[in-house]
């Protein structure tokens, strides 16, 4: 089956589901745009013929070959890339807000959880959550494939590399779905489920695995299309397994303590107070601290699977926090009494 049909089937299959409000890649429409471009004859094939005819005329043929491997296509670029960028960013936004909501239900405790469950009309939460997570993984997978396929098609039609280059643009805009920290959170969510629920989801859960005791702690997610994703769980600052992890907007993971020191803020002030000039120590991007994601599911996973290590780090973090607070107030008092 052609991917276009598979994708349509996926979208239609969801009509009863709850992804209706979520954005999707307008694969069919974008495909139409490319088809129109092809039929209007600006594609490389027709140009090549022209080129051969004009072989004698060097000036003209070099002009044409420039058009062939063109940097831009006047017919579809305006619609194609701006539309795809808009869709991709909607999808990324939709994915993160859905996962955020789902995981909030999971980690919410006590009375808050009870209230949330009331609002959810007493839906059986474990089952529903697992099902929703499965659906979100499929959502990411299908749309990621759709974006890849349509960009490949663009390059084929235009004999260009613009489609491929667009991928790095998506990464720079932080809308590349497979790099979303929410995917790691979702993976950790499943790994936390493991053994609690079993039954019909155990097979699905087995697509997620983690190796936390090796020299390189990693989480591995195998997507439904058998793409294998590996996420390193080592903090690039302390070189240990991340503890109380935060993902910066660029996607890089650090311990809260390490991220705070890199951003020159104190633990109790929090990453939100970081300056907009503060840069990620790995990729040097600025302004990545204010919207950092607190990876609660990943923290829970580490707490469960590496409890000794987790407790050790917890104590160390607590001690450092206290020390920072004490020093802060000491300096304040000294200032106030005019030392
Ligand atoms: Zn075109
Ligand atoms: Zn660290
Ligand atoms: Zn970074």
- Classify the helix fraction into a percent range: 55-70%
Overall form: globular
What's the rounded overall pLDDT mean? 82
Gyration radius, to the nearest Å? 25 Å
Bound molecules: zinc ion
Beta-strand proportion: 5-15%
Question: Helix and strand succession?
Answer: HHHHHHHHHHEEEEEHEHH
Q: How far do the termini sit from each other?
A: 78 Å
Spatial order of the strands forming the largest sheet:
1-2-3
Oligomer: single chain
Biggest sheet details: 3 strands, antiparallel
Regions with pLDDT < 50 over 5+ consecutive residues?
Answer: 42-69
How many runs of DSSP E, i.e. beta strands? 6
Number of domains: 2
Task: Report the structural category.
Answer: mainly alpha
SS field, number of helical segments: 13
Architecture blueprint of SSEs:
Layout: H1 3-13, H2 27-39, H3 44-53, H4 58-68, H5 77-107, H6 110-119, H7 125-158, H8 162-172, H9 181-193, H10 202-205, E1 208-211, E2 218-222, E3 228-232, E4 245-247, E5 253-255, H11 256-262, E6 293-294, H12 296-305, H13 307-336
Antiparallel strand pairs: 1-2, 2-3, 4-5, 4-6
Helix pairs in contact: 2-7, 3-4, 5-7, 5-9, 7-8, 9-12, 12-13
The chain binds zinc ion (3 copies).
């Amino acid at each position: 089956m052609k991917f276009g049909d598979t994708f349509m089937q996926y979208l239609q299959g969801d009509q009863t589901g709850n992804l209706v409000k979520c954005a999707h890649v307008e694969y069919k429409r974008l495909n139409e745009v490319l088809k129109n471009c092809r039929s209007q004859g600006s594609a490389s094939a027709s140009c090549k013929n022209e080129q051969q005819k004009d072989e004698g005329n060097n000036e003209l043929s070099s002009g044409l070959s420039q058009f062939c491997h063109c940097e831009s296509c006047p017919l579809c670029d305006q619609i194609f890339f701006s539309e795809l960028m808009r869709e991709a960013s909607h999808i990324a936004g939709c994915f993160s807000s859905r996962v955020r909501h789902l995981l909030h239900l999971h980690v919410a405790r006590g009375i808050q959880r009870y209230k949330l469950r009331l609002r959810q009309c007493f839906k059986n939460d474990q089952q529903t959550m697992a099902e929703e997570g499965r659906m979100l993984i499929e959502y990411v997978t299908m749309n990621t494939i759709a974006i890849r396929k349509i960009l490949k098609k663009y390059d084929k039609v235009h004999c260009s590399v613009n489609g491929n280059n667009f991928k790095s643009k998506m990464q720079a805009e932080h809308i590349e779905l497979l790099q979303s920290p929410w995917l790691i959170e979702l993976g950790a969510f499943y790994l936390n489920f493991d053994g609690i629920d079993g039954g019909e989801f155990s097979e699905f859960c087995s697509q997620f695995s983690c190796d936390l005791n090796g020299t390189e702690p990693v989480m591995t997610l195998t997507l439904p299309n058998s793409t294998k994703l590996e996420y390193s769980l080592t903090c690039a600052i302390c070189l240990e397994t991340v503890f109380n992890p935060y993902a910066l907007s660029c996607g890089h993971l650090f311990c809260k303590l390490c991220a705070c020191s890199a951003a020159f803020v104190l633990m109790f002030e929090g990453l939100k107070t970081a300056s907009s000039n503060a840069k990620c120590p790995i990729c040097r991007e600025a302004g990545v601290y204010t919207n950092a994601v607190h990876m609660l599911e990943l923290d829970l996973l580490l707490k469960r699977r590496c409890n000794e290590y987790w407790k050790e780090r917890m104590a160390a973090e607590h001690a450092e926090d206290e020390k920072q607070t004490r020093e802060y107030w000491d300096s304040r008092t000294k200032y106030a009494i005019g030392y």
